[in-house]
Design a protein that fits this description.
The chain is an alpha+beta fold and about 525 residues long. It folds into four domains: about 5-70 and about 95-140, 2-Layer Sandwich (Nucleotidyltransferase, domain 5); about 150-250, Taq DNA Polymerase, Chain T, domain 4, CATH 1.20.1060.10; about 295-305 and about 450-520, Alpha-Beta Plaits; about 310-440, DNA polymerase, domain 1. Helices cover about 55% and strands about 10% of the residues. It is built from 20 helices and 16 strands. A four-stranded antiparallel β-sheet has the order 6-7-5-10. A four-stranded antiparallel β-sheet has the order 14-15-11-16. A hairpin with a 5-residue loop joins strand 3 (about 80) and strand 4 (about 85). Helix 7 (about 150-175) packs antiparallel against helix 10, helix 16 (about 365-375) packs across helix 17 and helix 18 (about 395-410) packs across helix 19 (about 430-465). The protein binds a DNA duplex (9 and 10 nucleotides) through helix 8, helix 10, strand 9, helix 15 and helix 16.
DNA sequence: GCATGATGC
DNA sequence: AGCATCATGC
């Protein structure tokens, strides 16, 4: 057979109507894209199927999955302690491994398919997760372009700044020590300088930013320490870290994991592009280093308050739904209802509190946690909580019934049927049980937002191809999608993106989308 | 490997 | 306070 003919046969196999099966197919799809093949037709990814059945699965190593789900005795080769296939080291190890993986996956298909059907996970699997494999593989393959000179400049500036702050700190402390070592820092602060410690950690006194913030007035070194932490984080993680992973075409290619989180969200690593700084002025300049290629632009679209909108939809609370339909600032509207004043009379402090309470809600709020966060007493927190649930009674009902159902079943379910087992709910330990309750409340909210966002990604990628547009998705960050577009295509891409994201799922509140464009990620905000 | 502390949504 | 990843120290 000639190479061309082999390629054609292989293409036919990849496109076969019945679809292909594999374990962790995204990696294979990515390789195919590098070799100029079209994305395959996928029947099942056994790794994703297992994830849907149990997002808390300890390991996705095939031998253990075959034992667990394979419904038959099935061993090949020897299992190492790591649960990997152990081969005897012949010259064709890669081929043998591939063959064994394929065999394992094929053994898993039937039982997994049955389990997926039994648990009503078919739609999630076939309509969302499997199509998403291709979308993510294409994003990983493309990567996002960076301004190498800018990134290098930032790294160098930060390096100098860290060094300057280090000297100041050592001078003020009266000794040289490793500032990066919390252990050494504890000795310097709480023994040698005799400062009053605040919170404790498992191993000693806390030196985190929140604690140091409270000690600001006690010693001049504290402010420098806070600055050092900030700048050193930026230097190491974003300066050095990002430069180290710049690849072909001055582009950064992260891996987006589809089977990591308990809630259905994606995760990103090597590098993590989900936590590029945005909050502080010093940090957000890194977003200026993420750019579009020559004569193209970046288009950034994100959902406005999608998780709170999910709560409004799930609870059906008329007050919260009205607050969103009014289209005004949601935290101001919420504050008005909670504190019983008109929206125009809401103070900054009241808006801030309402915002905190809303976030608390997403996290499965309890009075104790809210008190910690707001730095207030338990009683006051409980009273704020009371007013909130007074204003939005159906939200309270929803939270209570969510926990109740989760306790009965042992797992939560999103609106799309995504399951998450929460064994903490039946723990004899009260603190663990409370954690389980918060997880149960959060899972349905964070999970629904994740499901909606995944639908939007799949639909958007499909629409761009259908319209034969050159614009392509290059990055996503939980509720935000970034496209790289030829400049002449921007307005069309904006239109398409807003339409697709806004209509990903019909809810009892609108799905509002913010959108903007620019040459850099920072500019498109 | 775990702990701490930073970043994001 | 829910969900993550990374750098660093020990």
């Amino acid at each position: 057979l000639h190479e061309e003919e082999i390629k054609r046969l292989f293409s036919d196999f990849l496109q076969r109507k019945s679809g292909i099966v594999g374990h962790g197919l995204k990696k294979i799809v990515r390789s195919l894209l590098w070799e100029n093949y079209s994305p395959p037709n996928i029947y099942m990814d056994t790794q994703i199927a297992v994830y849907l059945l149990n997002p808390a699965e300890a390991s996705y190593a095939l031998p253990s999955l075959v034992t667990q789900y394979g419904e038959r005795n099935f061993t090949i080769g020897e299992k190492t302690e790591e649960g990997q296939l152990d081969l005897d080291g012949g010259p064709q190890i890669a081929q043998m491994e591939a063959a064994q993986e394929a065999l394992c996956a094929s053994v898993l298909v039937e039982p997994l398919q049955r389990a997926i059907e039994e648990q009503n996970l078919m739609d999630l699997n076939n309509e969302i997760e499997i199509p998403l494999i291709i979308v993510l593989a294409e994003m990983e393959y493309l990567g996002i372009k960076v301004d190498l000179a800018r990134l290098t400049g930032l790294r160098d500036e930060l390096k100098n700044e860290v060094e300057e702050i280090r000297k100041i700190i050592h001078e003020l402390a009266g000794e040289e020590f490793n500032i990066n070592s919390p252990k050494q820092l504890q000795v310097v602060l709480f023994e040698n300088l005799g400062l009053k410690p605040g919170k404790k950690t498992k191993t000693g006194y806390s030196t985190n930013a929140q604690t140091l913030e409270k000690m600001k007035d006690d010693h001049p070194v504290i402010n420098h320490l806070l600055k050092y932490r900030e700048v050193e984080k930026l230097r190491s993680t974003y300066g050095e870290g990002l430069l180290a992973v710049v690849g072909e075409g001055e582009r950064i290619r992260a891996t987006f994991h589809q089977t990591v989180t308990r809630t259905g969200r994606l995760s990103s690593d090597a590098p993590n592009l989900h936590n590029i700084p945005v909050r502080t002025d010093k940090g957000k300049v890194f977003r200026e280093a993420f750019i579009a290629k020559e004569d193209w632009a970046l288009l950034v679209a994100d959902y406005n308050q999608i998780e709170l909108r999910c709560i409004a939809h799930l609870s059906g609370d008329s007050g919260l739904i009205q607050a969103f339909e009014a289209g005004e600032d949601i935290h101001t509207s919420t504050a008005a209802q909670v504190f019983g004043v008109s929206p125009s009379a809401v103070s900054k402090a009241q808006r801030e509190r309402a915002k905190m309470v809303s976030y608390g809600l997403i996290y499965g709020m309890e009075a104790w946690g809210l008190a910690q966060r707001l730095g207030i007493g338990n009683k006051e927190a409980a009273s704020i909580l009371n007013s909130y649930f007074g204003a939005f009674p159906s939200v309270k009902d929803y939270m209570e019934s969510t926990v109740q159902i989760a306790k009965e079943r042992g797992y939560t379910e999103t609106l799309f049927g995504r399951r998450r087992r929460i064994p903490e709910l039946s723990s004899p330990n009260a603190m663990t049980r409370s954690l389980g309750e918060r997880q149960a409340m959060n899972a349905g909210i964070q999970g629904l937002a994740a499901d909606i966002f995944k639908i939007a990604l799949v639909n958007l990628n499909h629409k761009l191809k259908e319209k034969k547009m050159a614009s392509r998705i290059v990055l996503q960050v939980h509720d935000e999608v970034i496209l790289e577009c030829p400049k002449e295509e921007i307005s069309e891409a904006e239109e398409v993106t807003i339409e697709i994201m806004g209509s990903a799922f019909a809810m009892s509140v609108p799905l509002a989308v913010n959108i903007s464009s620019g040459i850099t990620w920072s500019e498109a905000k």
